[in-house]
Amino acid sequence: MVRLNPIPIIRGAIIRILTKARQITIPGFKQVPLYDVGVFYMNGIANGAIGVRASGISFNFFMAIFPSIIFLFTLIPFIPIPNFQNQLIALMQAVLPSNTFQAVENTIIDITTHKRGSLLSIGFLAALFFSTNGISALIAAFNASANAFENRKWLSMRLIAILLVIILFLLLTLATGLIIFGQTLLKFLVSHGIIQTGFSQVLFISGQWLIILAFILFSLSFLYYYAPSNRSEYRFFSPGAIMATILIIVTSLFFSFYLSRFGQYNKLYGSIGTLLALLIWLNISSFVILIGFELNVSIHNAEKGMKKELELSDNSKDYERFYPQVDDIL
Description:
Elements: H1 6-21, H2 34-47, H3 50-75, H4 84-95, H5 98-113, H6 117-145, H7 154-191, H8 199-226, H9 239-261, H10 265-269, H11 272-311, H12 316-322, H13 326-329
């Protein structure tokens, strides 16, 4: 019986796949073959220290959460809606674990029922400072991925960071509001006969998630376009933003499923487990944002390499310098 060596067969199949990838182009990739983008992308992921950058970015955003909470709570007494404070406290009592709510109940009632202008200002400034630090860390990571020199002044960068924080806050607040209050609105519409159960309900839920996806896509597009110093090299709506939007939704759903089914972190850590879960989610989201931008950089670099290839088409050594050959990869 003759034994076949599977290694040459597998190697030949891989070579055929990679050769075919040289002929495939995807919309949004600027007519650059998928293989060429993949070479730059895998090299950027492997050598870009993306995990380390994501950890720094997520920590900065995590630090912005606490002053943001203080700012939002001290803002509540200034909202001129009758009985709003009592309704909010009742909602928090229903959402928070009983032990956690009992521990902070008196503090929440005191903050939400007494106006403190000085604490409101301090909370706002602290939240703005730490959140802009997170955006600044993102800008530095984007510039490092793109090998771009930062030629903007410190004040200009801070103003850009503040503008991005405001835009992201508004868009993500709207998306979060749709997630939280979407089901409540749906029940209201069904109970009043405005929407019938069945196909109309499916259309409503589908429209809700499409709007949420649009908000997240706009948020990432603003980040990818305005944060880097060489923004003229990228489009506003980019393949990286689309990929990152999908990955953020998918990873968030999987992470939520894991916490609800397998993550018994509350039994071990108590109420602090929620903060640990939030930090992990921020780290995952930061990683996804960075690999999304890395795709945009890879498309741009592959396009530059393709133009260089056309200029130096008579010199095979120059071609190999810009595009690793299939045999070199295997």
